[in-house]
Design a protein that fits this description.
The structure is a single chain. This protein is of the alpha/beta class and about 425 residues long. It is about 35% helix and about 20% strand. It has 14 helices and 21 strands. The protein is globular, with a radius of gyration of 21 Å. The chain starts with a helix and ends with a strand.
Length: about 425
Amino acid sequence: MLRLFITTIFVAVMASAQTFVVEHARLIDGNGGAAVEDSALVVQDGRITYAGPFADAPIPEGAQRMNMRGKTIVPGIINGHGHVGLTKDLKQGQAYYTRANVIKNLQIYASYGVTTTTDMGTALDSIFEYREQRNKGEFDGARVLTAVHGFTAIDGYPTRVPGVKGVANEVATADQARKLVDKLADDGADLIKMWVDTHHGAYPKIAPEIRTAIIQEAARRGVVSFAHVYELADAKQLAAAGVRVLGHSVRDAEADDELISLLLKGDVTYIPTVMREAATYMYGSRAPWVNDPYFTRSLTATEIQALRTSFKAAQADPELQREGASDLAMAMKNVKILHDAGVNIGFGPDTGPPGRFAGSFEHLEAEKLVEAGLTPMEVIVAWSKTNSRALGIDEDFGTLEAGKVADFLILNANPLDNMRNARAIHRVYMGGKRFRW
């Protein structure tokens, strides 16, 4: 659980025991306030001891000092909805869930500035071992929080998706679901995930009483509950039952006052995953990122070729195109409605499955959220303060302030001027240690 996650990171943090100061950069701390134009960020033994104006900075004797004038510091990206290790060369299957593939995924995430990611319900039990190895410093890469095995109905979504059958928990009763939640919590799951979606009528949906049992048992065990959702009615039921995070946009209807009230009352975080919707259909007609070197640098030649041929052909169906465009349009509309109403907007593009690529898609998501109506500052808050709080790790992670673990990015340009500037990564630090890719 999160206690294990937070405890084991300090083995790696202490291994990088170093005192340094990043000086004269612009500092965006993730709290949403004005940037500090001439700042100092002081790091000792992997934690921040000072973040603020350079003129007031207590510079420790003997500290390494790095002048980063003209650059911008932002919190590391926390991906609130991702998957790790189950996909290789645009194919998904349990055979791909190897240590090497998980490490590769986590290193690609880190190379794009994602310092913590999530593994939302499609993991194998070996994720516990890999999580521990990473947190002990046996390899470098993004940290990972895992839901291990998500919950769905018998033969429910996504059990017929390649590679997922046998990974997801198919449950028929509330009592069965509670017992499985307890097992996951005992094993060390950080999150509890469920899918509540017919996938446009193709699958049975998990029953409301089972959803409620999962949410209540997760709360009793102190584990964050997370729901994949599609329909407005289901979002309302889940919020009323006490779910902590909704992991997709409502896409069948506009968000209404009742949903807004329930989300605000329950302090629910809403992660829109707008790039997930784009990736369900845009390869078939217009996916401009396919020709962008920033996107393709982490792909294999096999993946690039498939995106331009077989994957494109598979998404060319007119009905799939219509469905995908409609879902994306509603997702974009609803994130703006909910944001303007004061709902917690989190961040995560549902990376990991075929066609949704680690790291680069986080940047595409950020840019898409600005297109939907958020400001760049609000997107940064979403990936730092909001996500860390939603995932229950905000005591140690998220914002850049004294006492927090030193997970941050140094950018060559100001993302407040243009969200695309978040791509201009100069350095990535996790636990005060520079990640080298």
